Backbone:
């Protein structure tokens, strides 16, 4: 057996240093590589295959609601960006500017899109004439760039991949409906495919998207008790339509402004998945999104019949629509186990000479490490069942974690103590004033994550200033 | 019946003005829209859906040969670009430079990728250590930017979408094998999915990719007799590996440079498809790539049973895996026919009260306008058959056009007359000197398209200078 250079080395334990554990997993599970481009990462095959599955599953959900994909330019002329004041102020400090084409200085500089509201508005202004042209429900898959100072794999990088939906509607009601609908699509995707439960709610004025009337968000809780904004959906009302002059002729022959929305989800959710499900052996992928769902690892593969049977099992599983691979390299089985675990493959099939003799194989769950002996005759059905069980139980565990790490606070002392000693969400009442959000951030570093759709009245007073409460808010330290 | 604003207006006939016909089709078939970003277009749903099918079918072929998808940054630091002299000289005049991040002037400027050899080399230099890490067969789907002066939809725009494969191999032989393999993938895709026959061959030194050892190409012939380079595959040998220091430790424990390839296909092929198959009624899409393969158009849809039967047919076809849509808007059938024809949908199902009575429907081919009456019981099988027939016959017609527009020339007078009077390819012998290529271009505007793999010895002398011939070359005026 050849000596293998690429050992599955130890990764930092998450209890010792969660941030280092996270980075170690990104690297050792071969998801990303560093590049010579500051603040930008290379997404390696194992990472990109996850993104491809995310794209596929999200895109299918989008199209089921009537979304159509398009592609707009990556550059925005400065005068176009400048038309909407709030958006400019929100993004100007973090855009990259193109000033030269070849050797020539450009007459007008262009920025690389940090988001494409401006471009869609410009396009819709030309493309929409009549009420018959509405609604427009477009989306694009692309990369965007924001000149961040500090970066972390998937969570914050200068360039990142995402989808951005941009819609235009005749009425404010229809725009609001679409804003909520897409938030629900995100929540459904996160819960059912990534096994990540979320809190759905509205961002405060302070935390909403620059230029939006309001922003809805899905907030998830990482294993370390920090919050991660995992998808947002914005209702622009006719704010952008006014700035960019996007109008249509209505049935009554009058000109009206359209009502717009936008909604986005990024490669960030890969980071969320790592931090919700991972453990000290590496990545743990939910079966619905795992590029490889099952890895077959022969024990004593040189023994007669073992490799043949392994190939037979691979074909059985593939035929049943399971994404399966066989590790028949000359590494030791122990190495192969570690690699499969590091990569987060949900199920391992162990198969040795005894198993072949018995007509059985051993299924080992990545998430719980439970073993299950199954007859090879039934292996396809049993594995398919097991993958669904794993998917469901991963969500159940994440839900239990979310619930057990959500705390209520009524007094400010309680609030501060909870935020400082108990990682997780703290629910508390809020008066609606930005001043209290700023006070809380200064005192605890926690920010308002959202005003959840499901409101509970914990008290009548703002936890910070004591004035009458307007809403219950989820607070937390966030990525 | 409501008055419909969006008529299918007349487009310029291709005989009158082929260039204007092309632009009209791009606009009227709703493939693209103009933007306020100079030289960049918006790809609208009908255009992007074609690109999605191209991506899907190409990606499947790539993966079958072991290709894995990744994602590299869109920005290239200037010092990284500068490492390979030929590449810099080739691309420097046409890259866009980022000089500012937010309000800050950058210490080093970065260009937006015109192509990503530099980034993959930088990545491979870090990622490849041993012969065990080879081969690397990576690809990415992304957009690139080249600061072109004059632009045309799909054919030449500052930003365009493409895939770029970048591979690293232990040996020169393996790199050469991959270069040819990917060219064959392109040819197979173009012929079988886009119904575009191609000439496969090698580019001359003058026309090869900057920095490559040699470039292979697939050249297609448009309806107007102009050539279009439709995909290229480059063998870099170890030229880039030397410049970027991409080395591996071989089995014999010595350090060696890797051998690299790259290959790309772009949204240009959508332009090729339009110009090979389109007619004066608009787009004609090959069934394999058409987002909608069949449009059902009811005649007198208000008559009893017609719409119900149309829905039933839609379900039958969809169940058989056919991409089908039903136009049940309140436009007149004539309008609907024109729209379906403009959009290039391969088959139309016409269904009126009489058809319902007879249990039949009429299939109308977009390409030949032939009609076929079929029993509704058999409509799924008959339509599937017809789609394959159309696909095959579209390729046959394009092949016949290519053959009938390929001419041979032995003397220079013959050559010039043919190039100037007969749109198409001219095959002629060449001495191998760049001077003759330049002379021919100056005299005729034709360029060398490729030295085909299938060589025929038309004479012993260069058509231009009369010196001994080294190769037979396809010449043509090109997009």
Residues:
């Amino acid at each position: 057996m050849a000596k293998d250079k690429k050992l599955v080395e130890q990764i930092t334990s998450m209890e010792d240093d969660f941030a280092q554990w996270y980075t170690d997993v990104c690297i050792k599970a071969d998801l990303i590589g560093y590049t010579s481009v500051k603040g930008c990462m290379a997404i390696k095959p194992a990472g990109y295959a996850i993104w491809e599955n995310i794209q596929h599953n999200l895109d299918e959900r989008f199209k089921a609601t009537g979304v159509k994909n398009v592609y707009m330019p990556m550059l925005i002329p400065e005068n176009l960006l400048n038309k909407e004041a709030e958006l400019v102020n929100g993004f100007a400090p973090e855009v990259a500017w193109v000033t030269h084409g070849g050797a020539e200085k450009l007459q007008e500089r262009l920025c690389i899109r940090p988001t494409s509201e401006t471009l869609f508005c410009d396009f819709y202004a030309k493309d929409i004439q009549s009420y018959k042209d509405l609604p427009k429900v477009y989306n694009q898959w692309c990369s965007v760039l924001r000149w961040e100072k500090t970066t972390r794999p998937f969570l914050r990088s200068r360039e990142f991949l995402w989808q951005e939906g941009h819609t235009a509607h005749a009425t404010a009601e229809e725009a609001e409906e679409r804003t909520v609908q897409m938030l629900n699509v995100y929540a459904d995707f996160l819960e059912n495919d990534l096994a990540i439960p979320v809190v759905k709610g509205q961002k405060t004025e302070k935390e909403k998207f620059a230029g939006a009337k309001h922003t809805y968000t899905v907030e998830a809780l990482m294993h370390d008790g920090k919050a991660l904004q995992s998808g947002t959906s914005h209702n622009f009302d006719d704010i952008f339509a006014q700035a960019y002059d996007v109008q249509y002729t209505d049935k009554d022959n009058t000109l009206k402004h359209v009502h717009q929305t936008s909604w986005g989800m990024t490669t960030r959710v890969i980071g969320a998945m790592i931090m919700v499900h991972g453990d000290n052996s590496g990545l743990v992928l939910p079966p619905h999104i795992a590029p490889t769902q099952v890895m077959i690892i022969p024990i004593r593969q040189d023994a007669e019949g073992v490799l043949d049977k392994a190939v037979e099992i691979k074909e059985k599983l593939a035929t049943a629509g399971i994404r399966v691979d066989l590790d028949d390299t000359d590494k030791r089985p122990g190495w192969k186990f570690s690699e499969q675990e590091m990569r987060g493959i949900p199920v391992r099939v162990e198969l040795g000479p005894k198993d072949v003799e018995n007509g059985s194989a051993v299924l080992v769950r990545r998430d719980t490490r439970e073993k299950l002996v199954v007859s090879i005759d039934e292996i396809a059905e049993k594995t398919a069942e097991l993958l669904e069980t794993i998917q469901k139980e991963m969500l159940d565990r994440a839900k239990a974690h979310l619930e057990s790490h959500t705390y209520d606070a009524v007094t400010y002392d309680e609030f501060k103590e909870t935020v400082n000693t108990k990682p997780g969400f703290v629910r508390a009442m809020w008066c609606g004033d930005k001043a209290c959000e700023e006070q809380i951030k200064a005192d605890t570093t926690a920010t308002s994550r959202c005003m959840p759709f499901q409101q509970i009245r914990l008290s009548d007073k703002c936890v910070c200033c004591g004035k009458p409460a307007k809403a219950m808010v989820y607070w937390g330290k966030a990525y």
